[in-house]
Amino acid sequence: MSANEKPLAPDQRLLSIAERRQLHERFEAGQGALRQGRATEAAESLVVCVAEDPGNLLYVAHFLECLKHPIDAAGLGQRLTLMRQEWSFRKAVAGKDHAAVLRLAPPLLIHRPDDSFLLGQLALACSEFRFREAELAWLRWATACRPDDARLLEQAATSLARKGRFDESLEVWTRRQQSKPADSRVGEAIELLRTNVGEQPTDLASANCDQLHALRRAIGERPADVAGYLALAEQLQQIGRLDEAEQIVQQAVAVSPGDPAANERLQQLRLDQIRRQLNLAERWAEFDLHPEVRELIDGLTTELHRCELELADHRSQRHPENRQLQWEAAQLLRRAGNFRETLRRIEAFPPDLADSPAALLLKAECLQGLRQFPAALEIYRSAEAAARHANDTPTADKANQRAAALAAALIASAPPDDSSTKFD
């Protein structure tokens, strides 16, 4: 590397097999030293692992374990070295050199394990490189060491929310409010999270308490009865206890793995969980404009679409006679970009449904997605004609617009790019 070249960022650098082997040997040496009560030696071994592979949660967790034990005081020469490292660390913080922060901060922590500034900057640097679990590990340690540090509490609460851990975030925001109640932003965050996280109001939960006890007794008396588990899960779902409802349905699936109703209910509960998470993430995005929140929303949206497709496909196969379920499954398959399977489903529709304007439009979109442009154009025109005949103006207009755009592209000898297959 030349003098003018910067080292690669931790998320861009790939450790070689030899480097990983050396780090693993250091890791094992550190573990061995810690087991023998040599915490200083263990920390000095593990700190190299953390500095070289800062996103590795295993290294971070074991390094933090070392910091729980007494560390030998630094000698004069070591103190001078630490002073130079401190100066370099402060310079890296001022210059927002997050890669340098990840490299320089861990050695300083060996002798200052509860330094809130070091820990906060380490977590921030991890956040920049999306080392999410390592970031949370540093923040959990920091807030345990400094439980009344308002700045650290807010950083931890915000980080948890950005990762979709809204219930944990609410708990930390509440601690933050107790530390400094006058902050209006903290109150806004708590109000937003309380509106969406957790159970329904206590009076509603109390009103169902007797019924919940009765349903639990019924399961105890008839542990092989899947219906009892599903009835209890339904009651829990009604009062907003989705996590507990999901656990109950998982028990039902364990009792009868092939039960279609139990498996479908489990899929539906997971779908409801994701929808609730997505709804809260979208609201949180108005409060916190950090890019990580948008990444969370995008990830939850992708997961939502996948779960919707799985559930619709499961239902359509379970009820092949249900036209609505078949249609919903085909639409979701097209949204997922599975054009060939969508066409196969359309071919299996009853004739009147397959020849409907909406189905013809769906078929044309899939053909365009498969880059069968002349065939797609023909079906678009058929869809428009069928829609006009049925007085379905919205579908007719949509088919006309798609046909016009496709025809113009074909005349210009420039087939539509991939963006033309994104119909929603």
Strand content: under 5%
Shape: extended
Secondary-structure element order, N to C: HHHHHHHHHHHHHHHHHHHHHH
From the alpha carbons, calculate the radius of gyration and give it in angstroms. 29 Å
Count of helices? 22
Low-confidence stretches: 1-7
Would you tell me the overall average pLDDT?
89
How far is it from the N-terminal to the C-terminal residue, by CA? Answer: 48 Å
- Structural class, judged by helices and strands? mainly alpha
Q: Which helices and strands occur, and which strands form pairs?
A:
Blueprint lengths: L16 H19 L3 H14 L4 H11 L8 H19 L3 H12 L6 H13 L3 H14 L4 H13 L3 H14 L4 H13 L5 H6 L1 H13 L4 H13 L3 H14 L4 H28 L3 H28 L4 H13 L3 H9 L3 H4 L2 H13 L3 H17 L3 H19 L13
Helix pairs in contact: 1-2, 2-3, 2-5, 3-7, 4-5, 5-6, 6-7, 7-8, 8-9, 9-10, 10-15, 12-13, 13-14, 14-15, 15-16, 16-17, 17-18, 18-20, 20-21, 21-22
Features:
single chain; 424 residues; mainly alpha; Serine Threonine Protein Phosphatase 5, Tetratricopeptide repeat; 3 domains; 22 helices; 75% helix; 0% strand; extended; disordered N terminus
Characterise the protein shown here:
The chain has 424 residues and is an all-alpha fold. It folds into three domains: 17-146, no CATH class; 217-312, Serine Threonine Protein Phosphatase 5, Tetratricopeptide repeat (Alpha Horseshoe), CATH 1.25.40; 319-421, Alpha Horseshoe (Serine Threonine Protein Phosphatase 5, Tetratricopeptide repeat), CATH 1.25.40. It contains 22 helices and no strands. It has helices at residues 17-35, 39-52, 57-67, 76-94, 98-109, 116-128, 132-145, 150-162, 166-179, 184-196, 202-207, 209-221, 226-238, 242-255, 260-287, 291-318, 323-335, 339-347, 351-354, 357-369, 373-389, 393-411. α13 packs antiparallel against α14 (242-255). The two termini are 48 Å apart.
